[in-house]
Amino acid sequence: MILLLEQKEPKLSGDIKITGSKSESNRLLLLQALFGNFKIKNLSNSNDSEVMQKALASKEKTVDIHHAGTAMRFLTAYFAAFEGRETILTGSSRMQERPIKLLVDALRDLGADITYLKNEGYAPLYIKGKKLEKNKVSLAANVSSQYISALMMVGASMPNGLEIELLGQITSVPYIEMTRSLLTQLGIESSFKGQLIKIAPAGKSTIPEMTVESDWSSASYFYSLAALCDSAKLKISSYKENSLQGDSVLAELYTKLGVKTTFLENAVLLEKENKPKPQRVAFDLANSPDIAQTIAVTCYGMGVACDLTGLHTLKIKETDRLEALKAELSKLGANISVTDKSLHLEGVTNFQSEVTIKTYQDHRMAMAFAPFALRAPILFEDAEVVNKSYPDFWNDFKTLGFKIKEV
Ligand SMILES: O=C(O)C1=C[C@@H](OP(=O)(O)O)[C@@H](O)[C@H](O)C1
Ligand SMILES: C=C(OP(=O)(O)O)C(=O)O
């Protein structure tokens, strides 16, 4: 589906409700399967959470998690420790290119029986579930924190718990902290000091319910809208100041781009401030990689030069996000350069109109470019990619007065 998006009104106001964080949801679904029958409130309605739910309920041998990175990584550990279950864990063609070797090696060190069915280091995997009794493992921590979160959650189900030694630079740290906080809320003890994580074995949880905060990565697109408007008053819910999600750093980062955040009861109010825009901004996004695309497009649309660093994980996400950003921003007229871990953009204001953005099967390519419609009409190939994390995305834009046409 190709969508044309237009918005000529530079003043926006509205009230948007976003469902639960997909990161928190997919952790809680796994923890629910492992430790107890607690209810989950405000669960994400994303495709990634749907496939996670289906996979955990499935009795089939083959489990297909499509594009969901968290599901792939979390379930590899889950099925490896599921005594007696034999599983073929597979995903989309892109998932079969996203590396999993570090996690498989760590699980094999713990005694797991996992075989690669196609290419060494990649899904599909053949997993013969076993009781994992060793309790110490080490792995490189600079590729994906999802491997570490997977080991932490499944580690709590092992008879002796798990000690995880992290080697080298640790990436996406808030996601590791999120996993730890959820374990703590379920009464599972853990520590994370320096390069060492210790997880104690869990008992059955007696917690009746857990509530998921709404998704901050999804909120980023409204920050971008507010930054690109002359005036904006957007209320988005349900959010809290003390978030488990690293992407809540948006509230701080976007003050530099003229957006004021006020925390209300259960919501945030985003308002455009009337102050001169900066010439150039620089952000290190190693702790919040999922908002890199949003920020790059906001800066481009504002005519603000930017230097984004800490982007070493972007090449192995839904697509190579650095190359995809370079290609699509260039089509809009940007002067952009990328390395394998950074992006640099000059501030220009001569924008191309009616450009068709390729989305590369990456939900965030569509959603990050959508606010640019405030500058010029823009088209999207495969607009339905948003379903991966935010199925209501285009409808929510419609409620803010954006004109959307299928072409
Ligand atoms: O644990 C998680 O929920 C996630 C961790 C991050 O991945 P990496 O740790 O691979 O950077 C993030 O990009 C992804 O969207 C969700
Ligand atoms: C990278 C992402 O997801 P995942 O790795 O879970 O597929 C994302 O949602 O931006």
Question: Gist?
Answer:
The protein is built from twelve helices and 22 strands. By secondary structure, the protein is of the alpha/beta class.
- Could you tell me how far the N terminus lies from the C terminus, measured between alpha carbons in angstroms? 8 Å
Taking Cα atoms only, what radius of gyration do you get, to the nearest Å? 21 Å
CATH class of the largest domain: Alpha Beta
The class by helix and strand makeup works out as alpha/beta
Mean pLDDT: 97
Strand arrangement, major sheet: 20-21-1-22
Largest sheet: 4 strands, mixed
How many structural domains does the protein architecture include? 2
Which ligands accompany this protein? shikimate-3-phosphate, phosphoenolpyruvate
Examine the coordinates and then state which fold CATH places here, giving the name of the CATH topology of the largest domain. UDP-n-acetylglucosamine1-carboxyvinyl-transferase, Chain
Notes on the structure:
Keywords: Amino-acid biosynthesis, Aromatic amino acid biosynthesis, Cytoplasm, Transferase. With 407 residues, this protein is α/β, with parallel strands linked by helices. The protein is 30% helix and 24% strand. The protein folds into two domains: 209 residues, Enolpyruvate transferase domain (UDP-n-acetylglucosamine1-carboxyvinyl-transferase, Chain), CATH 3.65.10.10; 190 residues, UDP-n-acetylglucosamine1-carboxyvinyl-transferase, Chain (Alpha-beta prism). The protein has a four-stranded mixed sheet. A four-stranded mixed sheet has the order 2-13-15-14, with helices on one face. Strands 4-5-7-6 form a four-stranded mixed sheet, covered by helices on one side. The longest helix is centred in the first third of the chain and has 14 residues. The radius of gyration is 21 Å and the shape is globular. The chain starts with a strand and ends with a strand. 50% of the residues are buried. Bound molecules: shikimate-3-phosphate and phosphoenolpyruvate (PEP).
